[in-house]
Amino acid sequence: MSAVALELDGLAVDFSGFRAVDGVSMAVAHGELRVLLGANGAGKTTLMDLISGKTKSTEGRVYVHGRDVTNQREHKIARAGVGRKFQIPSVFSGLTVRQNLEVAQSGQPGVFANLKMRLDTEAQERLDETLDLIGLTEEAETEAGVLSHGQTQWLELGMLMIQNASVILLDEPTAGMTAGETAKTAEIINRLKGKHTLLVVEHDMAFVRDIAERITVLHLGKVLAEGNVAFIENHPDVKAAYLGKQGIS
Amino acid sequence: MKTLFSSYRVWAYLAFAIVILALPLIGDEFWLNRVAKYLCYGMLGAAVALTWGYAGILNLGQGLFFGIGAYAMAMSLKLKSYTSMQQGSETPVPDFMLWNAEPGAPTDLCCITPGSWLWIPFQSQWVGLIVAVVLPAVFAYIMGRIIFGQRISGVFVSIITLALVLLTRLIVTDAQPLTNGFNGLTDLGWFTVFGVELDPYSKVTYMVVAVALIIVLALTRLLVATRAGTILQATRDSDTRALYLGYDVPAYQSFFFAVSAGISGLAGMLYVIVAEFASPSFLELSFSVTMVVWAAVGGRGSILGACIGAILINMLEARVSETESLVEAWKLIIGFVFVIVVIYLPKGLSGLAHDLMSKLQSAPKLSPVQKEEAHQ
Question: Interface pTM (ipTM) of the complex?
Fold first, then answer.
């Protein structure tokens, strides 16, 4: 595959003696979709916190397109091209769907660069395309606070698309979704693949099979195994640590 | 342009501008002077709405910025007062400084009392004017950078701002030789523009305040309509989300905090021109809290709403205070109004108006089901 978009080198964090992430090294190629698997407490969300700057690491480095962004402030890492969707959907509830997407177009993040009234036509077109893609054209003028759970998640995905983050971190994008909503989410994520590099934390194995190419399994803060779906499903250590002795249901 | 004027909000602003510009036609100078004070309060209400409604920052020390603006202008006007020229020196010296001077101190601004040299630049009224607006803004920006840079938010910001305004009040009252302490600055001269003295009891002065308010309202409304204004509202809803989009959230918060402070300083400055005094009471906690009530009643989500809220409450207060039996009860009444608004009208009067307007606008558009029902 082509160049590496996200590289972790011996990343670790020490919470006064407890090592939630303990020396994780991995490389995600440009345009790849990587799934992170692991039991509760394996360090998946903490790993995302370390990459996005929410938590400061104590060891190791993070590179985005070869650029060292280790322990920079969140908005700096975001400007380097890392976008993130949280486990609990977080959109700007007091703004309309359209305004949410406008804010997400953060190509010029400075205060003074934004003292203007309208987006240019190109940005406007991109916004309409994104609205269409996430299926919220009808709701464009609706306040985001009143959207359904699924719609909120899609809006957030749309914000990541329009933010044009090259590396997107998704923390449980299908949590609490109905089967139909999950299928639509898989469709949206598959569209992102290729253009964007994705790192996805997910528990729903059916969904993982739908979207995954490679899987990295974390266990107690360390990388336990890495490979394609079939390899992981049949890996004895993984079965023991996470999937249970009976295998995947 | 067509879409601009199709919005009732634009009409609301226009109507407000026309009303306050037309008031000199119906009132005498004494009444206009009083209304001009309320317009200054209205400007203050708009400043509170900008930080509280749009940025989600509840500043319980807005009076600090109003006070700085008021004192800066009052210092200049004090030096223009005839009393300042009668202290037996070539240059103006405020009368109270003489009363507070050590025996034998030279009657000159340079050294009559400790720190009196700080007054020297204020011999120009334009310095007073610029300091009144710029100092609050700069001070607020630095404050914002420190507070918001530390990711301090919510009630903690309110507590810090509250403490700061009380601290400043303590310093101002304590520095008697410099500020005339509890007595404040009185016996002020008049501001002069192009040779015209702004007599507080004149239609000209009223118009200056009215036009300033209209300009401030229009610019502030435009400012929150920019992309930066939308981003600010986004930081209010979720500051972490905005951070992960690459926005330097403290920079946005500090910028708008500074704009709000500048507007408050301008309001304080105009108030002094109209009311002819500056006093430490501007720095009292109750005054800053009252501003929050104005904005809550008028609607903190609306710049114009909060402004009108401030004006209406003050008009009401003036009316009530003329009825002797109600004077004592006024605080109770305003407290009651506040509680009612918070419970039943969380978006204030402007929210009520907004709901009414959207009902009116959407009334003719029936849903398909309703249309069907209408046919039957």
Answer: 0.85
